[in-house]
Write a structure and sequence with these properties.
By secondary structure, the chain is an all-alpha fold. The protein has one domain. Helices cover about 90% and strands about 0% of the residues. It contains three helices and no strands. Helix 2 runs antiparallel to helix 3. The longest helix is centred in the middle third of the chain and has 30 residues. The chain starts with a helix and ends with a helix. Keywords: Coiled coil. This is Coiled coil domain-containing protein.
Amino acid sequence: MNDKDQYIEKAKAQLDQWAAEIDKLKAKADEAEADAKIQYQQQIEELRRKRDEAQEQLDEMQAASDEAWKDMRSGFDRAWDNLRAAFDRAMSRFR
């Protein structure tokens, strides 16, 4: 397995983990009071949007040639950092 494949597999695993975390937040939102439910839903939508953006970039990287993916990686890393920060904020807010 080359660097590109390893990177993509690791990223896919993290995206799957974050999808599971979004599902947990959704379950909490479903049980929350009205005011808290709105906050949960807003946060969940932001997380889903960021996750979808990261998934799109990952799909593009996967389809790219071995040379092109190296250039794309820095953009994906930035999106990844934004997503990680959003997850950290959301999880700390709703614990």
